Structure formats: C-alpha cells, structure tokens
Amino acid sequence: MHNFEYREPDTLEEVLALLGELGEEAKIVAGGTALVIMLNQRLLVPSHLISLRKLRDIDQIESSDGTLQLGALATLRAVETSPLVKEQSPVLAETYAQVATLRLRNMATVGGSLAHADPNQDPPVTLMALDARVGLASANGSREVALDEFFIDYYETVVRPDELVTRVMVPRAAPHTGSAYLKFLPRTSEDYATVGVAARVSLEPDSGVCQDCRLVLGGVGATPLRARDAEDLLKGQKSTPELLEAVGAAARQLTDPVGDSRGSAQYKRAMTGVFVGRAIDQAWERALA
Amino acid sequence: MASEKTMTRTIRLRVNGKEHSLEVPSRRLLVDCLRYDLGLTGTKEGCSVGVCGACTVLMDGQPISSCLALAVFADGKEIVTVEGIAREGKLDRVQQSFIDHGGFQCGSCTPGMVVTARALLDANPNPSQDEIKEWMLGNLCRCTGYYQIIESIQGAAGEASDA
To answer: Which CATH superfamily is domain B93-162 in?
Structure first.
C-alpha cells in the first residue's frame, strides 16, 4: 500500500473543513471494507485519508414524522438488527441482512455503501425503490438529493469532492403498500447478486389495482436502474401472469449487464425478467396483508 | 518514493486484555500489526479481500476482517484474537469442542472459525443450526469439513447451556 497521511478529526465540522481544503487529494474512510481493498490494489492513491471513526452521533437510526433516518455511520448490521427499521421498513432490514457476511456488515456503513457506488450492492436498490433521499454536507452548507438522482456511473455519484454523505432518509410507505427485495444468488450466499430486484407496490383498496409502484434493478447496469417503463405498465392494472411477463420484458430492455462468474450478460438479462415478476408477486402479496 | 518518509500514527489498543501503545505506519493493515508488530501469528491472512474469514478477529466483541481494517482503526479498541480465546492455559469450550468433533483438518481456517464461533455463542448461547450457518457462512474451509464445524459449535453450545 502507498504512503498516506491519516487524519481522524473529532467533529463533523473539522471533517468538512479538511475536505474543503484537500478535496480530491483526500478519501473519506469509515468502515473501510471497500476502500482498503482499493488502496491495497492501488486503484486509489490518495495523499490523505480522512477518517470518520472518531465522530459521534452520525450513526443514529431514528424516526421523525414517519421518516426513517439512517445516520451515515450506522453499520449495515445496526440497520439489519434495528427494531425500528424492522417495524417501519421490514424490507430494508431484510435487504441489509443479505449483504455479504456478518463480518462485513459489522464494518461497512450506510453512507459508505452509497458513496462507494458499486452497482452490485443490495441496499441502494431497495433504498431507491423506497424513494430514499441522501443528506450531503460540506463546509458551505448542506443539501438533499433523491437517491434516484444520486448515481452517475460505476463508482461515480453526484457527491462533490468537498461533500460528505451524512444520512439517508426513507419516507413512510403509503397504506396498502408492500415491498420486496429479491437477490438471485446461484453460487454462494455471501456473493454479489446475479441480479437483485426491489419492488414496491401500492394498491387502490377498493378496486385492488396497482395505484403506484417502483421497480429497481441491481447488478445489471452501471448504477441501480429504475425501470420506469415497466412501472408504467403495472400502474392501474391487476396482476396477471401475462402482465408480469410484459413488465419483466420491459425491465429487461433497460439492462446492460456485464458477463462474469455470476452469469453471462444474456443470462443476467433473462433472470432480470424472471425476478422482476417474482419481486412484484411478493410485494403485491405483502400489500394485501 | 523510496526517500519519502513513511507517515505513522501512534495507536493505543487492548489486545487479548493487554494494553499496547504502538507507532504504526498509517498504511499498516490490522492483520499485519497483529502478526508482525505484536507477534500474534494465530490470525491468518487468506484471501486479503474480506471473503475467506481466516483473519477474523473481534473488535469490541464483534467479528471483523482484520485484512480490511487498517491498524489505526483499532485505536482505542479492544481486540480479541485466537490467542485470547483460551484462558489461563485452559482451552475454551469452543476449542475443546472443535477437537472433540473433528472440526478441523489442515487448520488454516480454524482460528477464524473459533473466534467467530466464540462471538456467536457470546451473543446467543444456544443458536439454531440456521443461526450457526448465518454467522459462519463467511468463514470458508477448503478442506470442506463444514458439518463437523457446525457439530463443534453445537457441542460447545450444549455444554454452555449445561453450565
């Protein structure tokens, strides 16, 4: 590993001041699970690491006015096991529980996993389906970005070099809503998904048709992909095998997977269609419950 | 680069109950710090990318991959390695159970297995088989003695509940 200076400020203000000063010269480190590998392999050679590990109070998981707030430094394990998350958004707890291994979930953080922007990750897929927003802060102020508009490309986001991800906000789901995240793992259970699909379905209680929905695909493009055309096909409809087939086909159109040990590009595309149908089925069932 | 001065940090940590104050290069991995700076070679480095579990240690009681942690992450923390599992020369129940149930073959993965299993039993003294699998799925054994490993942990759990 190359030589770098490690800074470990005690306060958020100091972190943001340092970031403002160093910008792209510095990388932020929290859990380290992604960054340390990239440093070890010399894919990144920053002159400074700014550690968040001495910061307090940005690892909280709380709820205000129905909005779930995940502090950027909350570990994946903390989200997975949080009674509040399990109660307000069971699908989110289920999703975090499916990431890699317990060891990694003890280390990796909510904010780091978004800022890293590896399109193979599970949480961004579900968070996007839940209309999550990301809180960003810099020495010059703070802003919020819809997760939908957060990712740009492989390992690339709208976060500016002087900005830090501080929290993630997840709004409360509407009544008669169900959500599901399905992770297709044909090899081993700690692997990245061949494809991951998150579906959220809100039903119109009297007619039983789909009033609103979200469909997000992971691992089959440069970023998590929101399948808007597929969503439109579902809206105002009742679920039938023929419709799910069409919705799956529309979602498949959007994908641009890279073939690897988890499946060829063609296979990943085909499985996207299958898992979209299954995820909608499960979300629909939960919306009825 | 050769003439460049290595950046270092002074860290204070507790390892297996003993306090240490060390000056380490910022880039030092925790696994290397444990093995080379502290001579605790029980912790093994396998894959170096956090997948195999051989380098598992406990940080403040939680299993982590020491190959993915910088040594500076351990500043102010309590670390337990496989050397800290036995107490006063007496094997821990988990270690004895791995011997009794043939829970290892070549032994390379065993330190990580034992450390993870200890953390599991501390968190949940009587885990179900599914809970054991959930905790252990990130610890790989290339001799593939997985059933004996599960039996070893169940054996240690059984005794724990009798105690």
So the answer is: [2Fe-2S]-binding domain (1.10.150.120)
> If you write DSSP's letter for every residue of B55-84 in order, what string do you get?
TEEEETTEEEETTSSBGGGGTT-EEE-GGG
Query: Does the predicted model carry a pTM greater than 0.90?
Result: yes
CA distance A80 to chain B (A): 13
User: Which residue in the set B7, B49, B51 is minimally distant from A4, CB to CB?
Assistant: B7
Point out the residue among B4, B69, B135 whose CB comes nearest to the CB of A32: B69
Chain B residue with minimum CA distance to A188: B137
ipTM of the complex model = 0.94
pLDDT category, B159, cuts 50, 70, 90? low
Angstrom distance (rounded) from CA A194 to CA B82: 35
Q: What number does CATH give the domain A5-51?
A: 3.30.43.10
Number of residues in chain A: 289
Mean pLDDT (chain A) is: 97
Judged by a CB distance cut-off of 8 A, whether residue B29 touches chain A is yes
Per CATH, which fold does B8-84 belong to? Ubiquitin-like (UB roll) (3.10.20)
Q: Say if CB A197 and CB A218 are below 8 A apart.
A: yes
C-beta atoms of B63 and A3 within 8 A = no
